[in-house]
Specification:
Layout lengths: L14 H21 L9 H11 L9 E3 L9 E3 L4 H24 L2 H13 L1 H13 L4 H9 L1 H8 L3 H4 L1 H13 L12 H33 L10 H21 L6 H19 L46
Antiparallel strand pairs: 1-2
Length: 326
């Protein structure tokens, strides 16, 4: 599942949302600069989170610019698009889209398979550029790509063990999270403990993503005769698995001590991720409202020429926090 991580929608009124937007638009700007204007469509919440997480370990503040993002007529905004963290997140995003399309080309049928296959092939030049960028950062690109390509082999050997089937996703996210601490080695040393915590945190996120994806696809996969390790799993067992993984994520965040953005990271990975998963797994959460979006007159009016990458529409809550001109 690509773009799984939520935005900090519970904090739209605060400076944290402005910071998130600066990284979100910074990722969009970096994708356009390094891969072409069409790459802006690959801007996503996972990539934004990786950019924030990478910047959180740098002693020096992230380099920013004040400019417009995707709308040249919009007012200039603060963008974090001039540092290694943005290039790293952009490269991961390009490779992530390619992996998703390649996976769909294998799993889907008919027109959807054809479109996914053609889309995957069309990205080869961008993927080569992104892989070269990741190699320059010292990321285990080849190893991670090989792990993701082995997904079908793991699933064939997994029977009803979703944890075994989730190993490729677990390894990929573990590597991505852990490597965010290695982008800025000039200013300080990251301890082996911190590196291990990031690897573990990413691994549990990867497993949770696989679990949520399998749960959402359960009915469709069963109807079409496709593999799904949760086909015969009772709902309570799935929920217990989610609670176990999420507890590991919560514990991991408690132990991390980033240089900056600690509150923002916690808002995304603990508070809002639980709310998102509550919707996915149909959990009862106090104070949670139905998933709707504010549109038309319910939303504060803005001039059309000032619209940009509206991160409010990335929100997963419906508390009304986005009824503002963020």
């Amino acid at each position: 599942m690509f773009g799984f991580l939520p935005a900090p929608c519970g904090t739209c009124h605060s400076a944290e949302h402005s910071t998130y937007r600066a990284y979100f638009c910074g990722l969009s700007s970096t994708l356009a600069r390094e891969y072409g204007p069409a790459a802006r469509f690959f801007t996503n919440r996972d990539g934004t989170f990786f950019s924030i997480l990478a910047a959180a370990w740098s002693e020096a503040p992230p380099t920013s610019s004040t400019t417009t993002c995707c709308n040249p007529l919009g007012r200039p905004r603060l963008l974090y698009d001039q540092s290694p963290h943005a290039s790293y997140a952009a490269a991961v995003s390009v490779c992530g889209v390619h992996t998703k399309l390649a996976d769909d080309a294998e799993d889907e049928a008919g027109l959807r398979r054809l479109v996914s296959s053609l889309g995957s092939r069309s990205l080869h030049s961008w993927v080569n550029r992104a892989s070269t960028m990741l190699d320059q950062f010292g990321f285990p690109t080849e190893k991670t790509a090989a792990s993701l390509k082995s997904q079908r082999d793991y699933e064939l050997a997994a029977t009803d063990d979703w944890r075994h089937a989730a190993i490729p996703s677990q390894q990929a996210y573990g590597n991505i999270f852990e490597h965010t601490s290695r982008l800025d080695t000039a200013s300080h040393e990251i301890s082996a403990q911190t590196s291990g915590l990031l690897q573990s945190l990413g691994s549990h996120i990867g497993r949770l993503i696989y679990l949520a994806d399998a749960y959402e696809d359960k009915a469709e996969d069963k109807a079409k005769g496709r593999f799904n390790p949760l086909c015969d799993s009772p709902k309570q067992k799935v929920i217990d698995s989610f609670e176990e993984e999420f507890q590991q994520i919560r514990d991991g965040m408690e132990q991390l001590q980033p240089v900056r953005h600690e509150s923002l990271l916690r808002s995304i990975l603990v508070d809002q991720l639980y709310q998102k998963c509550a919707l996915t797994f149909d959990l009862s959460v106090a104070g949670r409202k139905s998933k709707t979006r504010l549109v038309g007159k319910e939303r504060k009016k803005k001039h059309w020429w000032d619209d940009c990458c509206d991160t409010c529409y990335c929100c997963d809550c419906s508390s009304g926090c986005c009824n503002v001109d963020c």
